[in-house]
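Morning, I've got a small favour to ask if you have a moment. The fold is given in discrete form, as structure tokens running alongside the sequence. I'd be grateful if you could look everything over and explain what you see. No rush at all, and the record is pasted right below.
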Amino acid sequence: MTLASADGTKFRGYLARADGDAGVVVAPDVRGLHPFYEELAERFASAGVHAIAFDYFGRTAGMDRRADDFDYMPHVRQATPSSVFADISASRAKLEKETKANRVFVLGFCFGGRIAFLSSAELPGLAGVVGFYGRLGKRENEAWPAPAEQASRMRAPVMGLFGGNDPSIPPADIATFDTALTTAKSNHHLETYAGAPHSFFDRTFKEHKAEADDAWRRVLAFMKTGDPTKTA
């Protein structure tokens, strides 16, 4: 479907309806609305969770579907916090209008994982956020803050899922985020899968089925109970 952000930008989305009151806005990785995320929305719906996945790049890359060799980095660099959170808000509004979802989560991967964490601070009224291997460090001159810097503002419960063999997210960064969330008295759970790489749930899930299955179970339990520490 076509969605419209607050500034009038049109962007692509994919909605999958379910039964129940839980819904999720899926924030993709750097590929934007790749078919994986459309399929994931359907998987959520099959599990009883309404889902809408959206594309980041309506402002810079238009609304055409893209091939796997899409050069996404120039568009990632132009995606600002204000525009991305506006697009999430528009996606959430569409989800709530088109379904019976009244408990909405934001879940993201990689670039979207960081966005999911920050959504807990930036977007009011969320039931929770889930970040799959969202980068926790901060590069020089980067517009996006480190999630630990915003922990004191995070109101929605937080779940983080990481690969232990992911050099882009070292254990020290996870520990710093955990400490910040604990200090902020945030209801949270951060799970690290020893030996799993970055993108273990999407790009290499066939090689890491046990870890991906456990992560999926944890996510669904969170969306059922509202508590990221629950596992069933």
Observations:
- The chain has one domain: 2-225.
- The CA atoms of residues 125 and 156 lie 7 Å apart.
- The first strand starts at residue 2 and ends at 4.
- The domain at 2-225 is CATH 3.40.50.1820 (Rossmann fold).
